[in-house]
Amino acid sequence: MSVNTKNKRKIIVGKNNYLWYVDDYDSPYHILHIVSNDKSLILSCPVKTETPYVISKGRYFQNQKTDGNWHRYLLPFRIPEIITPGFVSQVIVWATNNKNAVQVKWNGKEIPI
Predict the structure, then answer these.
(1) Who has the most CB within 10 Å: 21, 37, 61, 103?
(2) Which residues are within 8 A (CB) of 51 and not within 5 positions of it... i.e. 6 or more apart?
(3) What would the pLDDT profile of 52-99 be if each residue is shown by its tens digit?
(4) pTM for the full model?
């Protein structure tokens, strides 16, 4: 099944195509969503949180197969005030090429340090 492209921006990182968008649906935060065309990488990143983190929901994260459940990882860089294609590309490269992301448990409110 393909990804709905309506109201989403396209970005190519390496040889792969991704869609991304920012919304505030059903959340007190604006959330950056990134989805690969084959849905193997699905990321959500709350934008204005004290602790920058990303939620991995896809089948792969940092070149490792996942169980498909939601897992939260600390971002090793800050989230800018304005989300740009450059930042989206940075998140994709980190989520696909890097290793040893720091996983954190969610306490139901905010990500603890």
Answers:
(1) 61
(2) 74, 110, 111, 112, 113
(3) 999 999 999 998 999 989 999 999 999 998 999 999 999 999 999 989
(4) 0.87
The 10 Å Cβ neighbour count of residue 29 is 13
Q: Give, in order, the Cα–Cα distances in Å from 104 to each of 7, 17, 33, 72, 80.
A: 31, 28, 19, 6, 21
How much is the pLDDT for 17? 95
64-71: long-range contacts at Cβ-Cβ below 8 A with a sequence spacing of 24 or more? 71/103
What gap in Å lies between CA 41 and CA 112, rounded to an integer?
24
Q: Whole-angstrom Cα distance, residue 101 to residue 73?
A: 6
